[in-house]
Task: structure prediction
Amino acid sequence: MKILADGVSEIVLEVKSMERAIDFWSNQLGFPIVEQWGYKEGQFDISSQDVWATWLYIGGSTRLGLWLTRNFTKEEMAEKRKPVSEWEGLFDEGGSHVHFALYIRQEHFDEAIEVLKKEGIDLKLIEEETLGIQERRLYFKDTEENIVEFYTRDMKNDYKIRFQNGKIK
Result:
C-alpha cells in the first residue's frame, strides 16, 4: 500500500432536508453532532445561524458530514471542471454519493440491527464467508435516499490476509 490509511476519516452525504437528516442520524441512530457550519457568499461560515453542513461523530477516526445541495453558478461549474490543481476555490462537494460502509465489529452488529429495527428502518441483511471468515453486512436507506451499509469486515485485517495470501501486492 502506498498510502497508509486506517479506515474512513470522513464521509459527506448530500441531503435534501437538514432537519430530517439530523433527526435520522443523530436522534434516531444516536450519532452525536460535533460541528455545524453555515454557507455564505461561497464560503463556509461557522457564525451563521442557518445550518448548511452538520458533522457527526460515527466512531473510530470517522465523522459523517450532512451537507445541503450547493447550487453552483456557471462560472463556478466551469472552474469545478478544471483540474484540481487549477482551482481558484474549493469544490469538495461532488454530488450525491452512491453508497458508503461503516465498519461494525461482530460483537456490536446485533445491537446495530436492533437499533434499526426499533426505529422501523427497512434493511437487507447478508451473511456469508469470505477468506474463511464469517461476515455480516446490512443495507438500508437514510431519509435522503443514500444507501448505507454496515459491514463486519475489518478492512485492515482483510488487507493483511489478502497480502499474505499473495492476492494483492
The chain has a mean pLDDT of 82.
